[in-house]
Structure formats: structure tokens, C-alpha cells
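Hello again, I could really use a second opinion on something today. I've been staring at a protein lately and its backbone has me curious. Please have a think about how the structure follows from the sequence. I owe you a coffee for this, so here goes:
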Amino acid sequence: MVPLQIDRHLMFTIGLAIRPCSNCTLGGRLSGVYNNISLELPKTALLQAHYFRKPNVYVTNFPDNPTSSFNYTGKPPSNIMAKGGTRLSYLPFNSNVQLVLQSTAIVALENHPIHLHGTNFFVVGMGLGNYNASSDPLSFNLIDPPERNTIGVPLGGWVALRFQANNPGVWFMHCHLEFHTSVGLATAFVIENGPNPEDSSFLHLWTFPPADDDQAMIGRSIQNVFFLSTMVHRCRNHLYSIHRLPTLKLYAPSA
């Protein structure tokens, strides 16, 4: 069911910007950004870092709101330089989240198809121009909103999503235009464990194949097993209807 009482209000601006580049002809390169932050993927997998509590891989201080306010769909600001980093958004288990995705015209207006891993969301509102936190929620559909895991952010507009963070782990949210993802238009939510064993991303190591202290192999096994267990968990709790099962690609460790 669509969450009615919200614990976390998030607003992410989304679009393209420029990052400084000393080796580039014009001194900058195109980047995709949420809240003017372009994701830098680390060498260690995010889920593996979360599982093993590896430090210095990512931080959970992604801003809940834009770091600066401007006319998002109008004339771009004079400074269009973006920042980079591996900054993720932390969500407590079972928290009810409202996320507004606001299109920007920093480089050019674009319709971005945004995909969230790990959970479905309810599309409670959508509009053109800049989101108004006072008036736009008055027209939200909280009765029978569509449930999706991918949504196109309107060209020069916004979309409001709601979901419950009840699936522990690290969940990628990215633009489905692959080039945009490759230049940083992505982030991730870190959903912490719940109070019960089945509400945990920290599976017992005895469920994995022998690893001979090969931590990289354990990490790949974690991702495979956790993905399958998550699918079972979702189906059991009827989190959403599965119309067709995705192709499962399980990557066995190399010899």
C-alpha cells in the first residue's frame, strides 16, 4: 500500500552538468548528476563494502535536498560545475520515503527514465515546471497510484514517488540511458537491517561455497545468493506483482 505517513522527505534534482577536466579541450566534461553530485563508482562493489563493513569505500551523507536552489527548469545558473563522489543515501529499515525527482536545464532539458533497484515505488504525483512543496502535494493520488520500478521524469518537470524501505541492502538508482549512467547519473540507497533475521542483508557465511579466504569470491557469492533470497522475500510478502521474471545471471567465480 502507498505510504501515507512519511518519515523521510527527499528531493533530488536530476540532469546533466559539467565536471572540471584538466585534460579536456574546454576544461570540462559532461556528467550526470543528482543534487549536483556525480557518482564515482569505487573499485570495491558497494554491496560487498556494506556486507564486510569496509571503510573508505562510500559515505552515507548524500544530501536530502538540492545543495543550492535556482530556477531548475529555466535559465541555468552561471556555475554549472558538478561535484563528484561516492555519496549514498541512508534509510532506516521500514521508513516511509517520499522522493521528488526534479528535472533541470543546467546543460539541456532531458526526459530521464529512472530505475530503482530493490523495491517498487508508487507514483503519487507528476507535473511540469518546478515542484512546489506547498501546493503540489494537494493533488497527489494517494488512493490508487500506479506502482512501478522505472519512471520517466517529465521533460522540464518533476515526479513524486513514495515507497517503504523494507528491503535491506544497497540499492542502485540510475538513469536507464546507459550513457548517462556511465557519466555519473546514479546513486544508491543504503537500507539498514530490520529486527528479525529474515530482515537482514547479512547472510550467514556457511550458506556460501568454500572460499579459501578469497574475499573477492565471497563477495560475488554474496551478490548472487542475496539477489535470489531477495526475490523469494519479495514474492512471499507480496511486495509487488511479478508479470515476468527477469533473466537471472549468476556469475560463478573464476578458477
Remarks:
- The chain has a mean pLDDT of 81.
